[in-house]
Amino acid sequence: MRLSRTARYGTLAAGLLACGGALAAPGALADCDAPDVARTLHPVQAGALPDHARAHWLDRHLLRWPGTAAAAGTRFRLYHAADATLIVRPGARVQGDDGALELVVRAAQVPAALRDRFGFVGEGVTLETDADDATLSTLHRSQLLLVHEDAHGRVLAATAIQHAGALDDLYAAATTLPALGASPDNAGTAFRLWAPTAQSVALCLYDAADAPAAAVRTLERDAATGSWSTVVPGDLSGQSYLWLVDVFVPGTGVVRNRVTDPYSVALTADSRRSVVFDLDAPALKPEGWDAHAAPALRTAADQVVYELHVRDFSRDDASVPAAQRGRYTAFAQADSHGVRHLRRLRAAGVTDVHLLPVFDLATVPEVGCVTPDVPDAAPDSAAQQAAVMAVAAQDCFNWGYDPLHFNAPEGSFASDATDPAARIVEFRQMVQALHALDLRVGMDVVYNHTSAWGQDPHSVLDRIVPGYYHRYDADGRVAHSTCCANTATEHAMMAKLMIDSAELWVRHYRIDSFRFDLMGHQPRAAMVALQARVDAAAGRPVQLLGEGWNFGEVADGARFVQASQRSLGGTGIGSFSDRARDAVRGGAPSDSGAALHAHRGWIHGHADAALLRRQAELVRVGLAGTLRDYRLPDGRTLAQIDYAGQPAGFATQPTEVVNYVENHDNQTLFDINVFRLPADADADARVNAQVLAIATTAFSQGIAYLHAGVELLRSKSLDRNSFDSGDWFNRIDWTGATHGFGTGLPPAPDNSANWSLMRPLLADAMRIRPDQRDVLRTRDMSLDLLRIRASTPLFRLPDAAQVQARLRFPGADADPELVAGHLDGRGLADAGFADVLYAINVADEARTLDAPELAGRAWTLHPVHRAPEAADPRPRDAARIDAARGRFTVPPRTALVFVVPTDA
């Protein structure tokens, strides 16, 4: 006998709730130790279901099915089956269901808040159910299909449903859950997991990292939050655990997933198991941790950021003990070449070291990683890259933009990855050591994607709440515009995970600032909420900056107001600027083929007058902090200047822009210069081009950002994407004795299309590769520029009004190869100088700036240039000042600064 829909559905709900979501007892303990991380309990019927999810839950009661319309004599039903038994074929009645809800076509508009959130969902029928919350909660723990039927119940069309809107509405209370994951204390260890679509959840407990399961416990479900919890007697700190989650997985069926905790604070080697720890436990703190203080920052505009990879820092530093090379602990080696270099940087004005991702990564083996045997081959040989790429999946290097667990430090940087506590203690030792150098610690975070999704073993979030944490296209397929599986931080619990995670790093690891990878894929509202949370946790401002690029499925605000360049105004969150970067370097980051040579930048000595004018204008945009409302003498604002069809000016305050000419992405500055400088460029030309580019960053209003090694003419042998190119292509020698250019053709996956252009350049390595003297003079010239920036807050004005009032560009229309800026220090108490005039001459001959409005003042060279130890003698030897007429002569290919002392 077939039960009525109401009776049948009530039976299903009562059955699941009565057993408290209890995991089926037979085999549960065995599943804690099974060789596979998943076991299908009830498979879906092959070929019996649509392969898309085109409908959307808007909230707990409303659904939208784009492209579908109601028609007379048809109806819409929501079918469900707890054991994934649905069979849906066009022209036939649905089979295998446990029942169905009749849906009503809604004629009225949906509420404004839902229209705003789901404006990206196409036009179609809006459907409504009045089912109560208990029924809806059980529905979402089953297989669901939305079906359009004729009057006889025959299928006209069917689709699965994207369910984030319903889960966010039904379980809104979950966003206030205070403690997800494991929370130990003497009274007991509490465990909590958010898994609202799970049919049951159990906890596997292990006495040791490699021991078999000692116990399995069933968790209780909280109907209000969709979370599951239990308390185990005793403090289980140091013990391992895993979740067993019985959940319906689209396309697979009801699956028992064994999975680590997304809120893990510690892990066993290679992230096999989560580990219980209280991060406030004294045993996890290095000596002096609680008492030590982070360096203070006057204003966010004072930031000079140095972007550095933990492994790059010491892997090839012979002054570091072998066991500590590439490790967190190398930062505490006071006399290493790397630490000495950090001291130089700090003395010159660098404020922050930003570490490439240091949370738990998916792709670096924490135990037993392989070192490639790289042959001694010709500088243009493919043999080196072949050796590196042969073991790329097993070697010890990756940039780390492949997050596995957001809240736990990466184990490959620890001295002993098999000791879950070591990575916590040593990470803190690293932070403490950097703070002792008077350097703040920033962290590169990647919340915009995960390394895997679906039933992949490296998928954590999606194997707990399938279909929730990621962003889907119109057919219900995961978007990959960020290179990997895009997360959906517009969904409440993904936003919570991101914000909770950032707070954890600030509260427990004293992180001072963050760089957000592909930040434009996240909602501005989520970033603003995160800012408030981390500031409160730290008791001081925590600076946020990120990549505000506008692309992909979220472009132009398609799904929400983005944390992108043009949408962050007023937030104080910094966004990288490509305006001056592209003008200086030439072309765009994706240039390939002939464009690598042809797209020459402002610093490369080309003769295209029209292009030089455009590039010089964009350089001035950068020098003025890319401020959208900064007004030039001709009346134009920077927002009225074109940059590839966009306003060149986008920031409302200088703290909202990050100025740079090189970071970890794309070719290094030295390498792009190899393509774009004249073929006969000598060592002086390469040094000067490097320093001219760095000058545009040093003299710009806003945040200054430097990639590790840019001041050392760093080369990756022309590699355009060294994320997985191993230690060989990512090496840094802090002494300058060795150089990366001409160490072989870069890896084939991202470079082989351009090997024919690279070969003759690499073959000429003996001429192109700089020697130690050239590297060290580049370093010292670059540090002098940073000292000049640090010498006066006029280069670091904190607000747009001061930039407008104090910055002018004399001679702006006279010569596109000479860009100059005048900063008025009068009335600024700590300015240090009454006037500052900086000039960057990219021409091959001396150029003269006529600025009669600056005549009659006591101009002199900046003290850094006048000092006997000045790295670049040209300003002292060849610059000329005619103060009476306001005429300044700048030597060829030189960046320099003139000043008027305050007492003159």
Task: Describe the structure using short key phrases.
single chain, 904 residues, alpha+beta, 8-stranded mixed sheet, 24 helices, disordered N terminus
Tell me about this structure.
The protein has 904 residues and is an alpha+beta fold. α10 runs parallel beside α11 and α15 crosses α16. The chain starts with a helix and ends with a strand.
Break the fold down into its secondary structure elements and pairings.
Elements: H1 5-18, H2 28-33, E1 38-43, E2 55-57, E3 62-66, E4 74-81, E5 99-105, H3 112-117, E6 124-128, H4 133-139, E7 143-150, E8 155-159, E9 161-162, H5 164-170, E10 181-185, E11 188-194, E12 198-206, E13 213-218, E14 220-222, E15 227-232, E16 240-249, E17 253-259, E18 274-275, E19 304-308, H6 310-314, H7 337-348, E20 352-355, E21 359-361, H8 383-390, E22 403-409, H9 420-436, E23 440-445, E24 449-450, E25 485-486, H10 492-509, E26 513-516, H11 524-538, E27 543-546, E28 574-576, H12 579-585, H13 595-598, H14 609-623, E29 642-643, E30 646-647, E31 657-659, H15 669-676, H16 683-698, E32 703-707, H17 726-730, H18 748-751, H19 755-763, H20 765-768, H21 772-790, H22 800-806, E33 807-808, E34 818-824, E35 833-841, E36 847-850, E37 860-861, H23 863-866, H24 874-878, E38 880-882, E39 887-890, E40 894-901
Parallel strand pairs: 2-9, 19-20, 19-32, 20-23, 23-26, 26-27, 27-28, 28-31, 31-32
Antiparallel strand pairs: 1-17, 2-3, 3-6, 4-5, 4-7, 5-6, 7-8, 10-11, 11-15, 12-13, 12-16, 14-15, 16-17, 16-18, 21-22, 24-25, 29-30, 33-34, 34-35, 35-40, 36-39, 37-40, 38-39
